[in-house]
Specification:
By secondary structure, this protein is an alpha/beta fold. Helix content is 35%, strand content 28%. It has 3 domains: 134 residues, NAD(P)-binding Rossmann-like Domain (Rossmann fold); 93 residues, Alpha-Beta Plaits, CATH 3.30.70; 76 residues. The two termini are 41 Å apart. Bound molecules: flavin-adenine dinucleotide. Flavin-adenine dinucleotide (FAD) binds next to helix 1, strand 2, strand 3, helix 4 and strand 15.
Length: 376
């Protein structure tokens, strides 16, 4: 195969992996100023799920494709409920298939030579292809294959079901981001409830812990919750989604420096929350606009704060509900949305820090610093 193109301004580009980051970049193929864009996809089923995010300036394309939005959301614990409202930073839900369809459509429209290659089924063959011939064949390879979580990384693991009821029971005016009024015996646990209309909702049992559970643990938790708070025991399941998201440092799928890492492989998952969709878009738009290589979309300070927060959570899981409650209580809707989207202002950080138990956080901040010193 031929190395580099004759035209100095036009590049040959490969994108590896057809998930959120791979397709989000392919949709912007036009901005890559490429002679050709080749997408390497692994053949596998892609179950439908939803992405939640707060409205931010870099998310206009996602907002165009939204399924629903809420200007109000809440965090509930046994201590009480925090209600947030935001006019500017509404919370959105986007169906993965709608986003992929939009990305595929934009990719097809791009004025560049396009190619989609389905990778071999066996993993050794698949990975050999990416690391040998292709280094020579392309100017840039963007790699979105999933990263590996470091040992002892806390995982966010969940199962959600989208249900339809016979009677109108849901309040579609408010999104429940965290409801901790559920059993905590299997780890830090809350329900995430997005009501699309009075009859339809996504109800997700979410845990933070070292390893995923058997499916029946999530199922039982969801059924108990629906019975207890919505008096529901009959409903139709329209869809279900499961996920495992690492909350902490990850190692790229392949550390080779000639690969440009993007998406979760490029550190886009926000460690303390598991949110990634918004950060993936932010990362891609940033490097396309600045014509740089992809960088982490998080600030060093956010990553450091998240590290301390996660150390506190890991060692003190029982106080998790009150930590999230106090954090939500300290902020209003706008500052909460900004903080969780990596756009916190100094005042937001002061409010967050002052809402946390000082001595506990100081203790773990020192532990994180000492560990870093030892590792380096
Ligand atoms: C069910 C679920 C719900 C989520 N909800 C939210 C949410 O509400 N909000 C939010 O912000 N984030 C959410 N996330 C987290 C995050 O947005 C996703 O994990 C996001 O899809 C990450 O995108 P990615 O492209 O980095 O990785 P992926 O989407 O996982 O894409 C990786 C791609 O690489 C491919 N691949 C794997 N191995 C190979 C190989 N050897 N060769 C080639 N290709 C390979 C895979 O087929 C896949 O297509 C959710 C995640 C899940 C799973």
């Amino acid at each position: 195969m031929k190395k580099k193109t004759d035209n100095a301004n036009k590049k040959t580009i490969a994108i590896v992996g057809g998930g959120c980051a791979g397709w989000s970049l392919a949709a912007r193929a036009e901005q890559l100023s490429a002679q050709s864009v080749t997408l390497y996809l692994k053949e596998e089923a892609r179950p439908s799920h939803s992405w939640g995010f707060w409205q931010m300036p870099w998310l206009s394309d996602a907002i165009l494709n939204k399924k629903a939005k809420w200007h109000n959301w809440q965090v509930i614990t046994e201590e009480g409920t925090v209600n947030h409202h935001s006019f500017t930073h509404a919370y959105y839900s986007l169906k993965s298939e709608d986003w992929f369809n939009w990305c595929q459509h934009k990719f097809q429209l791009a004025n560049t030579k396009k190619q989609i290659i389905k990778l071999p089924v066996t993993s050794t063959e698949r990975n050999r292809i990416i690391t040998s011939q292709h280094k020579k064949a392309f100017d840039y390879i963007y790699d979105s294959r999933p990263p590996k979580a470091e040992k002892n990384t806390l995982l966010q693991h969940f199962k959600g079901i989208e249900i339809k009821t016979l009677n109108p029971v849901f309040n579609s005016g408010v999104a429940t981001l965290m409801d901790f009024r559920v059993s905590q015996e299997n780890g830090i646990h809350f329900m995430y409830v997005l009501c699309y209309d009075a009859f339809t909702a996504l109800v997700e049992s979410t845990f933070f812990g070292p390893s995923p559970h058997q499916e029946e643990i999530y199922d039982t938790a969801i059924n108990d919750y629906l019975k207890r708070y919505y008096n529901l025991d009959k409903f139709e399941i329209i869809n279900s989604e499961i996920g495992i998201i690492p909350m902490g440092e990850v190692k790229p799928f392949d550390c080779n420096p000639f690969l440009y890492k993007i998406g979760s492989n490029g550190g886009a998952i926000r460690p303390s929350s598991g949110y990634a969709f918004s950060f993936i878009q932010k990362q891609i738009i940033h490097f396309l606009n600045k014509q740089t290589k992809p960088l982490t979309p998080h600030t060093k300070f956010d990553l450091w704060m998240d590290k301390v927060f996660l150390e506190v959570l890991k060692s003190n899981p029982k106080i998790a509900p009150s930590l999230f409650f106090n954090l939500a209580k300290a902020l209003n809707g706008d500052s909460f949305a900004r903080f969780l989207s990596g756009e916190g202002k100094i005042w937001d950080y002061i409010l967050v820090i002052s809402s946390m138990p000082k001595w506990l956080f100081l203790k773990y901040a020192f532990k994180v610093i000492i560990k870093k010193e030892k590792d380096s």
